[in-house]
Amino acid sequence: MDLSKKRLIIFDCDGVLFNSFEANKAFYNKIATMAGRAPLTLDEMAFCHMHTAFDSIHFLFKDYPELIQKAFDVYDSLDYADFLQFMTMEPGMNKTVRLLRKDRFTAISTNRSTTMPRLRELYKLDELFHEIVCALDVKRPKPDPEGVNLIFHRLGCTAKDAVYVGDSKVDEDTANAASIPLIAYKNKKLDTPYHAESFEDIEKLLIGNGI
């Protein structure tokens, strides 16, 4: 398949546009410890890094049902902006997205929820992406394709127009559910013929010359 003919490029946010692992780790560890349980294990952090805050808190406290309400109270009291200092933009992201935006649509589909408005404001994401859909905009977050389908509707596109760039099994399942090809970013375990280790690789796949 020639991905260079795709006119809609949909990106996941965390792990693709931004390296937000340390920010999410600090955020969820704060919730965990303030609510009265131990800091997160690596497996728990991996889950939280790919899911909504609502699902993550329920997952973290599934063995502590008496602490769930306190955990959500802590969540409501925190400002994720205080943790954005731990985030870093992926090298080359700004350049590549601006280049793609010249002659095609760019969009984000993410499971971030209440933190997304602040993130798009701080990093001026509306200058880079025609559409941004987060968990607040849908009833069913990824891997359900509702967010991707909403982007299709808003931009007048269909599955044949699109490609998805993601880094997790959730993204693989989302792309499959939406019937669009996946470019796996820095994750060779994902089942797709298209892999990229950098935004330069993404450019080669989407603009030409292949990799």
What is the topology?
Layout: E1 8-11, E2 18-19, H1 21-35, H2 42-48, H3 53-60, H4 68-77, E3 88-89, H5 93-101, E4 105-109, H6 116-122, E5 131-133, H7 146-155, E6 162-166, H8 169-178, E7 182-185, E8 194-196, H9 199-207
Parallel strand pairs: 1-4, 1-6, 4-5, 6-7, 7-8
Antiparallel strand pairs: 2-3
Can you tell me the number of structural domains? 2
Query: How does CATH name the architecture of the largest domain?
Result: 3-Layer(aba) Sandwich
State the shape.
elongated
Order of helices and strands: EEHHHHEHEHEHEHEEH
Beta-strand percent range: 5-15%
- Unreliable stretches (pLDDT < 50, length at least 5) are none
**CATH-defined topology of the largest domain:** Rossmann fold
